[in-house]
Design goal:
There is one protein chain. The chain has a two-stranded antiparallel sheet. The protein has 13 helices and two strands, in the order H-H-H-H-H-H-H-E-E-H-H-H-H-H-H. It is globular.
């Protein structure tokens, strides 16, 4: 079965210079006037605005559940739709992750367990369909499992898998296969779109941004770090080692990381690098982007309508 990305004040500038940091200037940035992602309008047309994702996901789950139910019932079994089982409402954290307040308390939330502990709070995990299954005879349960999960196979490690049943058929119809992509028709376009982030990360301009951040971190006694991802990885490594000071170390590291990101205008500069590539891409593929986004919008409407 399938399972299911500051302006620097005079005081900050003085602190940055004292720490050996060099905040980015306009001359460091690729030439683009974009202040938001040039691809955002196309993603929004295709999938809706970010603030609407939760509602969209609930509609998709409902479509998924309805397809499972229809398929299982066609096989002669009862199936109770339980919307909210796979997509649950999240309880907003008391302190927003990523903020300085959060980092001063929990670092990245790794060693403290805050990161893994931030989960969804919603309906219970008891599946009402288990009761339906358990009410069947042994032969009936086997047939039910086949209808819902598909044929059973055992891999080389002895792990039992099922595929081809109603669950997989519903998943492919709603979440997999051609859903949201227009099938293979837009595969190349989507791959190019998603590669822009990798191109930005590997660019000489981004190396300069990371170099400025790294110099700032060295001034705060955190050396040998190539970028913020390295800082997170270091915190994770320290946590996994079981070190007694893992939480305290992570808090100091995470706070220093964010201070340096602010001091070198890390987010603004990295955004501009990516937006410059996106702008070029939009100019070259505007017609294709409009066609893909409209097609994806129609597919989503068809799935959730």
């Amino acid at each position: 079965m399938k399972t299911g990305g500051l302006a620097v004040s005079l005081a900050a500038l003085a602190a940055a210079l004292a720490a050996g940091c060099t905040p980015g200037t306009t001359s460091d940035l690729p030439l683009t006037s974009a202040t938001s992602s040039p691809l955002e309008p196309y993603w929004t047309l295709a999938y809706g605005a970010a603030q609407d994702y939760a509602a969209r996901d609930r509609l998709l789950e409902a479509a998924f559940q309805k397809r499972i139910a229809a398929c299982v019932r066609e096989e002669g079994f009862e199936y109770q739709i339980e919307e909210g089982r796979y997509v649950q409402e999240e309880t907003p954290p008391a302190v927003a992750p990523g903020t300085m307040e959060y980092r001063a308390l929990y670092g990245y939330g790794i060693s403290s367990g805050e990161l893994s502990g931030a989960g969804a709070a919603g309906p219970g995990t008891d599946d009402p369909n288990m009761a339906i299954r358990e009410s069947l005879s042994a032969e009936g349960r086997a047939a039910y499992d086949l209808a819902l999960g598909g044929e059973e196979t055992v891999d080389a490690d002895g792990v039992i898998n099922r595929s081809g049943g109603c669950y997989d058929l519903a998943w492919d119809a709603v979440y997999g296969g051609a859903a949201f992509t227009g099938g293979l028709r837009w595969e190349g376009l989507l791959e190019e779109m998603t590669s822009l982030g990798d191109r930005a990360a590997a660019s000489a301009e981004m190396a300069k941004v990371n170099g400025d951040w790294s110099a700032c971190m060295r001034g705060k006694s955190f050396g040998a770090l190539g970028g913020p991802d390295d800082a997170t990885a270091l915190a994770d490594e320290r946590s996994r080692s079981g070190a007694a000071d893992a939480v305290e170390f992570e808090v100091r590291l995470a706070v220093a990381d964010l201070e340096c990101q602010q001091e070198v205008d890390y987010q603004v500069r990295s955004d501009q690098i990516l937006y410059s590539l996106e702008e070029e891409f939009v100019d070259a593929r505007k017609a294709d982007l409009e066609s893909w986004a409209q097609e994806a919008k129609e597919e989503l409407a068809a799935l959730t309508g």
